[in-house]
Amino acid sequence: MPEKGDSVLERVRCNLCGADDTAPVTEIDGFHIVRCRQCGLIYVNPRYREELLQRIYTETYYDHDGIQNGLEFFGYDNYLEDEENIRITFAKRLKTIERYATKGKLLDIGCATGFFLDLAKSRGWEVVGSEVSEFSVRYAREKLGLDVRLGTLRDLQFDAQSFDVITMWDVIEHVPDPIGELQEVRRILRDGGLLSIITPDVGSLVARFLGSRWEEFRRVREHVYFFSRRTMTEALRKVGFEVLRIEHADKVFCLGPAMHRLKYYTWDGMLTNTATRWVYKLGLDKIRININPFTKMTVYARKQK
Ligand SMILES: [Zn+2]
Fold first, then answer.
1. Which of 16, 78, 230, 240 is deepest in the core (most CB within 10 A)?
2. Are residues 61 and 110 in contact, defined by beta-carbon separation less than 8 angstroms?
3. Which residues pair with 139 in a beta bridge?
4. What pLDDT digit, counting tens, does each position of 203-222 carry?
C-alpha cells in the first residue's frame, strides 16, 4: 500500500444515513475510526480510495505473516493450510442455510478459493462465486473447477432475481459502499431469497473491552466499516430485507494456529509465546477446537417483495 497522503485518501459521508457528523472512536496507525452521531455507524474516515482498497487482495493476502512492504495488515495466516477446518466451519453454516432456503442457485460474494462453493456444489446446489483476488479466482477455477468470476459485484452485473441464496462472509466490512452493495444484492436475489452476512460485531463485548486492541480495528487498512447488530439490522431494513436471525459466528481451528492468534488479544506476549511453544512440543497443535470468540456476527435475512 502507498504512503498515506491526500492523493490516496478520501473523506466519506456516513454510508447508512448520509450525515457528515462524527465523533472519534479510536485512532490506529494514523487512521481515524469514527462513529456517526446520527445513526451510530462506525467507519474509517478518511480512508484509502476505492481502487487502492482493492489492491490488497493479491496472493500474499491469503498467505503471509501480517507484514507486506513493511506495512502491517492481516489477511489470513495460511488460508490453504487451514482448508479442512474452514470446510468444517462452512458445513455447519450450510446446514443453517438449508433450514431457511430450498436448494437452488447460490452466489458466494468474495468466495476466496471457493471452498464453500465446492461444499455447496457437492450437496446439490448450483453455485457461482465472485472474487476480486486473481490468485483466488485462478485457484477456484483450476483446482476446484468452479464457476468463479473475477471482479466486484458491481462489475459483474448478474441478472435480476437470479439467485436463491447469496452469502457474503467477511466481505461487507471491506466494501467501499455497503448500502450500494446490499442494494445490488437485493436486485439479483429472487423475492423471498436468503442472504447470509458475516461481519465483525463492533457492539460485541470483546470489541468494547479491547478497544483499539481489537483485531478487527487493527485491520484498519482493509476494514472500513464496522457494524453492530443494530446498524446491520437498520442497513438491511433500509434496503428491503427482513432479519431472520443474528448469532455470533463460531469457527473451527487447530490448537496451534489458535494459540498463534491469541497473541493479538493478550497483553503478555511472552507468556503466550511460551504456551504456544509447549502446545507444539507436546504435539497438541493439530487438536481441533471449535471457538466462538463472540466477535463476529452471522446474519440471516430474507428479501422482502
Ligand atoms: Zn449515519
1. 16
2. no
3. none
4. 998 888 888 888 888 888 78
